[in-house]
Structures are given as C-alpha cells and as structure tokens.
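Narrative of activities, Objective 1.

The group set out to show that a structural description can be obtained from nothing but a protein's sequence at a throughput compatible with the screening campaign. Below is one input-output pair from the validation batch, recorded exactly as produced.
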Amino acid sequence: AFYDPRYALTSPASSTKEFTEFVMTFYDRVLREFTMQTTEELLSRDPALYKEYQGLSSKKKKDQVYRFIRRFNAAHPVYFQKFS
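Output recorded for this entry:
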C-alpha cells in the first residue's frame, strides 16, 4: 500500500473545490501540470523504471503513478548547493 495524496480530498456535495497538481522537473526547471503524459515523460529518463511502468495496464498506471514518481525521485535525488 502507498499514500495517494488525492485520496483524502473528498468534500461535501454542496461545495466544490478546484484542485490542480503540478510536477516540477529539475532537468529543465519547468513546472508542469500533473498529467499521465507529463509523468511518462519524466519516467522516460530512467529506462528501467519506464519499462516497468509501461508494462502496467492503464488502470494500474493511474493507481501506482505516485509510487513510480517516488521511486524515480529516490533513484535521482536533487542536490542543492549550500551557500555560506
């Protein structure tokens, strides 16, 4: 089991809230709207992880997208320069 940040976003039927997710790529310093297509573009930078992701059905891709993003982030950490 893994955490899906969208799971707890239920609201009463009488009100509606707009919710937009974004993904940031540090390679090109671009903030993009989170979609399945942008996620696939991000994962394609890691051939082994991308191949595993492509082997899933569409439903499983949607269900496990956050897990694959976390795995990508763990395999490709971002380091920041410390200024003194």
